[in-house]
From TrEMBL:
Record InterPro entries: PEBP, PEBP-like_sf, PEBP_euk
PANTHER family, per the entry: PHOSPHATIDYLETHANOLAMINE-BINDING PROTEIN, PHOSPHATIDYLETHANOLAMINE-BINDING PROTEIN 4
Name of the protein this chain belongs to: Phosphatidylethanolamine-binding protein
SUPFAM superfamilies tied to this protein: PEBP-like
Pfam families reported for this sequence: PBP (PF01161)
Length: 259
């Protein structure tokens, strides 16, 4: 069953929610999405397909498999043509625990060769949000560098933030995997800025995130700064958006490369 009330999220809302969650700049320096990027999941309550609203809190079972990726406003991304391929990752910014994320970032998925899904009458719409276009990989091009590992954070390790991001794929990877440029298969302590340089990537064109609340560990965890104290996953799922003052954190982190 498809969701009957999925609505579009503007690129500005995505940007704001990455800031109000503290992900920007604590985990990634900046995010300026040109497209609205969505993942679908199966809601535990009624089994319906739901769209990942940035910041929504999922159960471990709901996070176990993305059922669809889709995108809106793809024409706003630079250098995109009908032939462009895309890569998608999922990471846990708060592994193994929110207050001591010594494995940040832990990669749960990385695969390239995504394209807009099409059939004989054109581009295929999302099953969940009719104004979005579905992204798929054909099986003969599906060589995930990091096969999908279902999120399974340990109990009492706080609120984990899981980030999906979408990039345009440099054409050299249309015929070669990421190992061809020496990418490290280890999934822990994944350095995004070093990785972008290694693969020759531009900034993410879209990104979204969900949280899994494992309890305790100070909730938001000591790793977040005082400015995000009180920004719960529940609040970020609500329609009201508020950005918290992260100037102090930005100053502490200094100049960083763009995500
Ligand atoms: C770019 O995005 C804006 C909304 O932010 C939309 O109105 C416009 O149609 C988009 N342009 C293209 C080419 O998709
Ligand atoms: C192609 O996809 C569109 C939705 O995006 C659908 O309405 C149409 O029925 C599909 N056509 C075929 C031949 O599958
Ligand atoms: C894309 O698919 C081609 C096969 O058509 C394969 O050689 C290449 O490794 C794939 N690239 C990625 C990044 O998965
Ligand atoms: C990530 O890599 C960059 C070099 O691209 C480096 O400056 C930075 O210190 C690294 N970050 C971490 C946390 O190791
Ligand atoms: C942070 O949250 C804790 C627990 O909710 C609360 O006791 C404390 O007063 C908050 N600190 C600030 C600076 O808001």
């Amino acid at each position: 069953m498809a969701d009957d009330n999925a609505v579009s999220v503007s690129t500005l809302d995505f940007k704001n929610r990455f800031q109000s969650s503290g992900i920007v700049p604590e985990v990634i320096a900046a995010l300026d999405p040109s497209v609205s990027f969505y993942a679908g999941f199966r809601a535990a309550s009624d089994g319906h397909s739901e769209l990942l609203v940035p910041g929504v809190s999922l159960t471990i079972s709901e996070a176990s498999l993305p059922i669809e990726f889709s995108v809106e406003n793809l024409g706003n991304a630079t250098g995109v043509t009908a032939q462009t391929r895309y890569l998608i990752y999922l990471l846990d910014a708060d592994a193994p625990a929110r207050d001591n994320p010594t494995a940040r970032n832990l990669r749960h998925y990385l695969a390239g060769n995504y394209t807009l899904a099409s059939n004989t009458s054109g581009v295929v719409a999302s099953d969940i949000l009719r104004t979005a276009q579905r992204l798929t990989v054909s099986p003969n091009r599906f060589f995930p560098f990091t096969p999908f590992t279902a999120p399974n954070p340990q109990p009492n390790t706080g609120v984990h933030r899981f980030i999906y991001a979408l990039y345009t794929q440099p054409s050299r990877f249309d015929n070669a995997g990421f190992q061809s440029v020496g990418m490290d298969p280890n999934t822990a302590n994944w350095n995004l800025s070093a990785w972008r340089t290694q693969l020759g990537l531009g900034p993410a064109i879209g990104a979204t995130f969900f949280t899994i609340d494992t309890g305790a560990n100070g909730g938001q965890g000591a790793s977040s700064n005082g400015a995000v104290n009180g920004t719960s996953a529940a609040q970020t799922t609500s329609a009201s958006l508020f950005t918290t003052g992260l100037t102090a954190a930005a100053a502490l982190l200094g100049v960083m490369t763009i995500f």
